[in-house]
Specification:
With 208 residues, this protein is of the alpha+beta class. It contains 5 helices and 7 strands. A hairpin with a 2-residue loop joins strand 5 and strand 6. Helix 1 packs across helix 2 and helix 4 runs antiparallel to helix 5.
Length: 208
């Protein structure tokens, strides 16, 4: 057994008895998310509890998705693209991004500040539709001076399995998939579902 495995084993046993820091909990969630075969039933229950506690505080990290089979609340995050960045707590972190859409004529990077969700971890959430790509890089300011600039990264929205969900994003996303596959039947079925949803929403507000 290598040294760091013993450390994580000690940390998770300690966590059963005592309150651990947020960063220790995150380290355990990330490590055992990648090594699920090393978890016993009690240890897994503890980590699932940690993840649920973070979600209750509106804290989400991509490593939580390793537990999505046991935590239904994580399903909604599959639709999102979340960029994470680690830095010091006194830094100002900015993401420069360009989303490639057919409707976009001017290809210009937009800039938004990334905010810390927990000690030293910054996050920014995006919603990409099927076929869209996003290029981005991150800059960091320390005491008013620009420091680190990361290399450019590129993300493409992966094809999703067809969903029967009535969420607007899922309907629109499935329509985009159908269009790319030249599936007219699937595309018009999506249009029909979306139209029904709009009608129901309008009816609900008219009734008030």
């Amino acid at each position: 057994m290598i040294f760091h495995e013993k450390i994580f084993q000690y940390m998770i046993q300690y966590g059963k008895k005592e309150e651990e820091s947020h960063m220790c909990r995150l380290a355990l969630i990330k490590y055992y998310g990648e090594h699920r075969e090393k978890l016993g039933e009690d240890e897994e229950s503890l980590l699932l509890h940690y993840v649920e506690q973070f979600l209750e505080k509106h804290i989400f990290l991509n490593c939580f998705m390793e537990y999505r089979a046991k935590i239904p609340a994580l399903e909604g995050f599959q639709r999102k693209t979340i960029i994470e960045y680690k830095s010091g707590e006194k830094s100002k972190v900015y993401i420069h991004y360009l989303i490639d859409r057919e409707t976009r004529k001017e290809k210009k990077y937009e800039v938004e500040e990334m905010h810390p969700i927990i000690e030293g971890i910054y996050s920014k959430e995006f919603l990409l539709f099927f076929g869209e790509t996003m290029e981005y890089y991150i800059t960091e300011e320390i005491e008013g001076k620009e420091g680190i600039t990361t290399k450019k990264e590129k993300i493409e929205n992966r094809p999703m399995e067809s969903r029967s969900s009535e969420r607007r994003f899922d309907i629109l996303n499935n329509m985009a998939v159908s269009q790319s596959l030249q599936d007219e039947k699937g595309f018009f079925k999506g249009m029909e579902r979306y139209g029904k949803m709009d009608y129901l929403v309008l009816s609900l507000f008219k009734g008030k």
